[in-house]
Write a structure and sequence with these properties.
Blueprint (H helix, E strand, L loop, with lengths): L1 H16 L6 E2 L6 E6 L3 E8 L8 E3 L3 E5 L3 E7 L5 E5 L4 E4 L3 E6 L6 E8 L7 E2 L9 E2 L6 H4 L3 E8 L3 E8 L6 E3 L5 E5 L5 E5 L5 E3 L4 E4 L5 E4 L6 E8 L9
Parallel strand pairs: 1-4, 11-12
Antiparallel strand pairs: 2-3, 3-10, 4-9, 5-8, 5-10, 6-7, 6-9, 11-13, 13-14, 14-21, 15-20, 16-19, 16-21, 17-18, 17-20
Amino acid sequence: MRPLLCSFLLLFAFSLSTKAPVAVPIPKEPHHHLVLENSYVRVFRVSVPAHDATLLHQHDVPYVYVALGPGDVINAVAGKPEARIVMTDGQVGYSDGGFAHVARTDSGLILNNIIIELLKPQGQPRNLCAQIVPGAEAAPCGITLADKQKSYFIEPQFETAEMTVDQIQIGPKAGKLGTIPQTESLLVALNESEIQIDVEGQPTQTLSPGEVIWLQAGSLETLSIPGKKSARYLQLSFKDSGASAKP
């Protein structure tokens, strides 16, 4: 009887040790650092050192991501073959979520990016002037080469039923740009960019690469660049918000 009991205990212990790991929520994954949260978004700054890996973590909702510098990462989605993803500086991506994965930096490059979880239903994405979502419907772009040479240039990236994503470049000759956004917006300063933002009634803020700011609909804002280099930022504008909406 005793040998049989020992065999059962060994088999039970082995079955426990071979169970698949449980995915943790993103806020509990130590490489993901929450920097902003409201009723529209949760924004995480992600940094994975070279030759390191995240924990298995769960993406439950759609999200936008943008690379801060080049990246070369192994994407190990639970239940699927591993895939290598190579990203260029400033590259934007979109995912519907609904999966768990591990990100590994086997290549020796540090992974730095921003993940923006979208907390409201998005519907089907549609590419605009960039091929962000493979296989998605595309809309006419209408941007010319002359547009791209202006000191202030907006390149629409893609949209969903809930939001529009634009990449914006400001040149040194643009001066101070005043605007009153009609919707709630998230701004993300991209790599090697510094942006100064003056919001009426608030202290001046300077965004460094990877930093974000939430802008209220209907607020008077002035954007400029403090240095002599062009700056780029990503802007997510939320369609169902307005001057009376609060995040």
